[in-house]
Amino acid sequence: MSAVNISTGPAYGYTDIDSDGARAANRHYWDNEAAAYYAEHGDFLGDVDFCWSPEGLRESDVHLLGDVAGRTVLEVGCGGAQCARWLAGQGATVIATDLSTGQLAQARALNERTGVPVPLVQADAITLPVRSGSIDIACSAFGAVPFVADSAALMSEVARVLRPGGRWVFSTTHPFVWCLPDAPDANGLVVFHSYFDRRAYTEHSEGGEPVYVEAHRTMGDRIREIVAAGLLLIDVIEPEWPEGHDQEWGQWGPLRGQFVPSTSIFVTARPH
């Protein structure tokens, strides 16, 4: 979820929203919030690093993408493109995409600051400007997947651009999180919302316009979307909160992390 606490931020609720509405709300949100997001979380994410989740799971430790050297890698929903820069440092040929002008501005600034430039493309995740069967590995660390209304279309689009045998790995909010309040403390351990309510979590302006949207899918929904796209599900990782990691991030934190997962990472591949 967003960094805005539901008790002090905009009005929130659960609504049915189409792809156009979700796209417009989230593009506007990230165009305006990208700089603040980086200021708050940039040190934790690193400028040239691949962090999968607020639990601090890093690709350098878990190797979910396999050997990336010499591979063409697409990062979908790249934000500041920190992951893409790390991949480039591992010898990959990288393309980084994001819908948000604000996020891409952060990525361009980091390209210059780090001296590790990666190609940046503004693109909707469900209409990628990439040739079919041209990508060896696609990845997304909390980018795009939570924010599109039609994530089944996103799965199919990524499957389209992958070469046979290509891998698609993405992290997103754990489905169970939507049952709980957006709080990292004991208040976030009370089930208050139905797991089976597929309406999107939506924050609204005073005028009732959606200003932030995250779509909810159950674990079964995610798996069915992956399979329907013709992909193989290899693994699902639910990171445990690591000992000694005391940093809170929105609803993520060490107290709640002892009891329930907040992140799910899906490892998939296009069949040969």
From TrEMBL:
Keywords: Methyltransferase, Transferase. GO terms for biological process: methylation. InterPro entries: Methyltransf_11 (IPR013216), SAM-dependent_MTases_sf (IPR029063). This is Methyltransferase type 11. GO terms for molecular function: S-adenosylmethionine-dependent methyltransferase activity. Pfam families: Methyltransf_11. It comes from Parafrankia colletiae. Residues 74-170 form the Methyltransferase type domain.
